[in-house]
Amino acid sequence: KNEVEQSPQNLTAQEGEFITINCSYSVGISALHWLQQHPGGGIVSLFMLSSGKKKHGRLIATINIQEKHSSLHITASHPRDSAVYICAVMRYGGSQGNLIFGKGTKLSVKP
Amino acid sequence: ETGVTQSPTHLIKTRGQQVTLRCSSQSGHNTVSWYQQALGQGPQFIFQYYREEENGRGNFPPRFSGLQFPNYSSELNVNALELDDSALYLCASSLEQGASEAFFGQGTRLTVV
After folding, report:
1. Residue A95 three-state SS
2. CB pair distance less than 8 Å for A48 and B101
3. Buried (b) or exposed (e) across A26-40, using 16+ Cβ within 10 A?
4. Coil, helix or strand at residue A56
5. For every one of its 113 residues, what pLDDT tens digit does chain B have, with 9 covering 90 and above?
6. How many Cβ atoms are within 10 Å of B18's Cβ, its own excluded?
7. Cross-chain Cβ contact A41/B88 below 8 Å
């Protein structure tokens, strides 16, 4: 079993829909990242969380440390949101090199 | 724009050859990590460099090696390339080795034929 599990693996939505991507992890962490990867390959960091909730534009990320679970929400989704969304956790006491990645959720938003 | 650039963007090599991939970090970022991302998978940690010394390594054989330079650039070298080395190689830099925030490059897509 992977230490970081994401669901769903693939997600197709209509423009305007509210989207939720989930991430569960099984190790102690100091931080959790939500990353966005476009088809070209480059990764952009969306959020870094250690507790609570963060919001940036139409994106909201939440984390529940006790339940070892995080969610990424996209409100009013748009075709330009189509990308792979990756959850990555930094193992507690570790350095950046101890980032453990999920396999990603491929999101496709149709117009 | 993360301020981290990788070169080349794409590369095709033959099995058995050697390859060098390059990463230019943000100025002042003395920690760089390299990751391998196979198709359809999440990135896997290869190794990390801090102040020009290797500072952690994932489950990769010794033919994967690296260098970090004082000008915040780094290299990933892979010897005796195998078909399974075909992947996207990502570098990520951060201000300090304990920093949680990481800045990723665009990646180098390596194809071994």
Report:
1. coil
2. yes
3. eeebebbbbbbbeee
4. strand
5. 668 999 999 999 999 999 999 999 888 888 899 999 998 888 999 999 988 999 888 889 999 999 999 988 999 999 999 999 999 999 998 887 666 677 888 899 999 99
6. 11
7. yes
Q: Of A27, A18, A110, A109, which is closest to residue A71 (Cα–Cα)? A: A18
Inter-chain residue contact A95 with B97, CB threshold 8 Å: yes
| Chain B residues within an 8 Å CB radius of A41 | 37, 88, 90, 106-107, 109
The distance of A54 to chain B (nearest Cα, Å) reads 15
What does the pLDDT read at residue B85?
Answer: 98
Decide if A43 and B97 are in contact by the 8 Å CB cutoff.
no
Closest to B85 (Cα-Cα) out of B77, B96, B93, B97? B77
